[in-house]
Amino acid sequence: MTGNQFSSHTELFDLSEKYALVTGGSRGIGMMIARGLLQAGARVVISSRRADTCAEAQHLLSEFGDVRAIPADLSRHDECQRLADLITTDSERLDILVNNAGAMWREPLETFPDEAWDAVIDLNLKSPFWLVQALLPALRRAGTADSPARIINIGSIAAIHVAQSPNYSYASSKAALHQLTRVLARELGPQHVTVNAVAPGVFPSQMTASTLDAIGDDIAAKAPLRRLGRGDDMAGIAVFLASQAASYLTGTIIPVDGGIATTATGTPS
Fold this sequence. Notes:
Elements (H helix, E strand, L loop, with lengths): L8 H5 L5 E5 L4 H12 L3 E6 L2 H11 L5 E5 L5 H14 L5 E4 L15 H28 L6 E6 L13 H21 L4 E8 L8 H14 L8 H12 L10 E4 L13
Parallel strand pairs: 1-2, 1-4, 2-3, 4-5, 5-6, 6-7
Helix pairs in contact: 2-8, 4-5, 5-6
């Protein structure tokens, strides 16, 4: 579509005939995103480290559309390549890559261990890069000037403001992922691939369970919208970024956090 032609509302957000991979799609934010893409019509592959978790998630998501689960430990380069090979065996084209799989390590500065850097950086930063490398030919085949292929990286508001908890490697990895998003956006734009990042605030998940138990009410009270994130909030931004509505958007970092990071005053209330 070119010039001043306009799509209908349905056409703007329809993902029918699109093929998507969502890493870490078996629970939490990844499952929210997978559900949204499925409801918009996409065929979705989810990946997670544990086979039993993948099977359960595939069963839960199957009511929303065509979904398949592939277990893979994406902290390893060879596993990223294996997953990419399976994806491209099924289809030579990949329209949407959502790099969501991630890890967090909370520990005080004095005792923060070496392995907390390697484990978190490998999964949060290296894995998205490895998957882009391996899947770029399929993304290039899917993208056109009018309808680019999409890479959606899941960052964090911990990379925009300083959180209260000591997540040294997590915050650093997500800040690096935000910058990697911009670097890739510049390089891949001419190849008809957009690259954007979502920076979620606090959403219910296994990763945030301990935080929510301890200070969930306090976090919600300090958000301008006075609540935590919900499934539709994450599904909606993912569908937008994957749809025709976002075909002229690349290199952006979009906070989805109820305004916490972007309106923080820096002083406690």
